[in-house]
Amino acid sequence: MEASIILVAFLILIFGFSSFKKISQSEETSAPNQDEDLVFVRTQILNGCQKGGLARHLAEGLARLRVSNVFYDVIEIGNFEYSEAHQSFILDRSTDCKEAGPSKIALLTAQALGIDKENVLCKELKDNYQEIELTVVIGRDHQRLFSPEE
Questions:
Q1: What is the distance between the alpha carbons of residues 60 and 147, in angstroms, rounded to a whole number?
Q2: Collapsed DSSP state (helix, strand, coil) of residue 58
Q3: What letter would DSSP give residue 94?
């Protein structure tokens, strides 16, 4: 019983923090940059090639990468659920992606990283509590990806 209460309290804290962060980002996106509004994209980076440190390395680079008016807010770094991805790809997590196709932001991100536009896929994330908008999965072809640090 106590574990249930602790779990519910923890989920409420996460939801509250996420809401606060979303509100604060909304205020930041209202500041124009060269006649365009800034767009903050909540991004997940997953390592799909089992080479340690690649997801963190790309996340650090994405934090500095500027594609048009897009700023990447990397909110999760981890390992891809399947053992290995042969090619790197991007999952557009927007709810209207299946009808409208990948977003302009997903395609611009792919171009900036050197991922083929054919490898930008639409896949809504079930129970998307963190409101992830893009997932970048690093594959075995990670050497050909643009490194934002360079």
A1: 10
A2: helix
A3: -
